[in-house]
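Hi L.,

You mentioned the student needs an example of a multi-chain input paired with its predicted structure. This one should do, with 627 residues in total across all chains.
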Amino acid sequence: MTNLMTGFALVFQPLTFLLMVFGVGVGVIIGALPGLTASMGIILLLPLVYRLPANVALVMLCGLFCGGMYGGSISAILLKTPGTPSASATLLDGYPLCEQGKAGKALGISTISSFIGGLISTVCLILIAPQLAKVALKFQAADYFSLSIFGLTIMASSSGKKVVKGLIAGCIGLLASCVGIDTIVGVNRLTFNNMYLAGGFTLLPVLIGVFAISEVLSQVQTSKDKSPVSVQAVTNILPTWLDIKAILPSALVGGVLGVFIGIIPGTGGAIACFLAYNIAQKFAKDRHLFGKGALSGVAAPESANNATTGGALIPMLCLGVPGDVVTSVMLGALILIGVRPGPLLFVENVDIVYSIFAGMIIIQFLMLGFGLLSSRYAPLILKVPYTLLMPIIMVLCVVGSFSLNNALYDVTVALGFGVLGFFLKRWGYPGAPLVLGIILGPMAEENLNRALLVSNNSWSVLVQRPISLTFLILATISIGISVYSARKKEA
Amino acid sequence: MVLSIGVWVLTADLPTPKRGIGPGQYPRVIAATLFILGLVQFLSNIIKGYPKQTAAVQWKQIGRAGLLALMAFVYVRLLKPIGFPLLTPFFLYATIVLFGYKKKRTAAIVSIGATAVIFLLFNVVFMVFLPVGRIF
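Structure written out for the whole complex:
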């Protein structure tokens, strides 16, 4: 409790608070614009992030994460186009409400449900994360290696029916992490005697390349100058007490479901929102209206997708394994600012952990306030033409990667990974496992080496330790399930 | 598969310690896994067939992305001699046109305005001194 109070004290410092508001605001705008994702928002803020104290930077990123998740519902309701995949289920009832002239009410319900889901997930984060970290403190080298493999396979298997492609991308990431001077013996590895490559690939340019530049390159393929979208005016945002009472069960169930889906690495908001929608459709009082403009049909998915935020932070903070794409980018950002997520974070950097906990609580209230106050202006955000936005993002990517070391070499690396990310995306290979491979590669190599040293080069150490064996079994199961469900879909 | 063979060859002569995993052994384990996965994907593509796509459309789309990537590489190469404030408005304008935006005057204003804002933001707030070129 004292730690949490210390966290609150930091969160309420003027700079931290302002940056948290900024994070939520940017997140909502980015989430609302189709084509821009929360991960891209985090990447664009990275030049700012690593100039800030770690805990301040982190609460700002959490604000962006939560704001981005909520923002996706705005375009889903007003344009029938989800701003993020996590808002895909929201449009099923959100847009019919908009057609009936109730866009304001739909946005209001979406904001309140997001708040409920976010609050549930934060409570679960505060209760579960420290306990999981205590268990994770017992991990040894072999367990950490198997955990890295588990993290990679789970991220690859979340690529749906492209599980083999996900694993290939992960392996390419692991190989990219090998470039540079080897940390164990100290020899040059895969550097082609290039002095720049001796330092390996720095994470920031890789993140910018794979997640932001590749996206700009993909968008230019099909871009056309579209006429400005016409969006209905938003009025009557505040729902009545009766409306809130009606949607509360759906929002609560969606919230709990979202947390548990968020905890499972590799899942995320897109799965949670559809599951919550399906469950709400079965028991909600207004189930006869589902698909035609049911308020519970907006509340359940919105609460669920926002609840995944706290859930996804649990494995990232406790184990160093991200729960979804956004948290994999956040993991990269954490490493950039010198914070290594994992169980030791809860021992060595308690202040950072509890700042996140306190920040997450305040962020939910900020999101509620921001959502209710700004929904009226949402149509203005949606009028920004992405044909102007994307080129500016490209320049921000160049400047962002330059800012790391004031070196144009980093920009070239970012462009190189951007082109690689573009082709991987085009051929159906997901980018997240590639980046995760680069992040987890050194941890996997170091711990595998340590495990083999201790066991006299006996690889059986990986299956002799129960924790390691459990991770390897879980990794196999996750791939098995993905392959099975992909086959089932094809059949 | 080509990448995995390349890695295998390039790491072949790296030292192998008596205990633990050597600097060459670890990438070779990954390369072997990558080779197997590549083979599985290759066979799966042969069995299921590659997705059909009109060649002309595909090349036109890749061409635009390729042109943007090329423009970005040239822009980065010229940043040091010409400088961020002079070069970026032209790069931005060209990119906006490539994206298909029709209003030329707005595009020019946005290009100059965005360059000024980004330059001031990074130089003054973040203290990241962007290249100003040899003219200044």
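You could point out the following to them. Residues 55-82 of chain B form the longest helix (28 residues). Residues 55-125 of chain B form one domain.

Best wishes,
N.
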